[in-house]
Amino acid sequence: MAEEVEKEERVGKVMEGVGSIALLPSGSISGHFVHLPNSVCYGFYGTEIACERECSRGEDYRLIKLTITDYNSKRERDVVVECRGHDAARLCNVDHAHGWEKDVVGMLDQKHGKRKVYVSFDCETLKAEGAAEDHIRKFMPKLAGMDAVVNIGPMSITGLEFDKEDEEEQILQNVPQ
């Protein structure tokens, strides 16, 4: 039990819920995460990070720069995740990025005491064609007509604590140089 508390203090609060992701033909993703049981909704969008070399992880592997938005406070946080699976996506954090460009590796590094954000998503329901378009019209109307595939499944986000980040940033700003 003490080990679980220590882990939570190190990585932050764990939010679990349901993710709904539209996989766009361009390689981008867009969607939302509903944190249960309070039904707090976060939005996110992601763009694929171009790879200048042959990836040794398989043809379905790609890196995504994912921006998570807190709709209530209008604040955002970027995190780099790996996406596996073609139409049925699995998202998780990148353990290492050896061989990628320095700017990509830099995005993975923690900066100035910011907490690392961990993201996990597994597709349980795949919607395509008419079912996907109906879902998009209902829940993501701005994406209607873009021929996206929809993934729905369990999602967790750990360490996304905008209030704690603000406190840490304020403390760092007040420290004499």
List the SSEs and their pairings.
Elements (H helix, E strand, L loop, with lengths): L1 H10 L2 E10 L5 E7 L4 E9 L13 E9 L4 E10 L5 E4 L8 H7 L9 E5 L2 E3 L1 H11 L9 E10 L3 H13 L3
Antiparallel strand pairs: 1-2, 1-9, 2-3, 3-4, 4-5, 5-6, 6-7, 7-9, 8-9
Q: What is the number of helices?
A: 4
Overall average pLDDT: 79
- How helical, in percent, are the residues? 10-25%
Strand order of the largest sheet: 1-2-3-4-5-6-7-9
Give the amount of beta strand, in percent.
Answer: 35-45%
Number of strands: 9
- Low-pLDDT segments: 1-10
Shape: globular
> Which structural class do the helices and strands define?
alpha+beta
How big is the Rg?
Answer: 17 Å
Q: Report the sheet with the most strands, covering strand number, pairing sense and barrel closure.
A: 8 strands, antiparallel, barrel
- The protein's oligomeric status is single chain
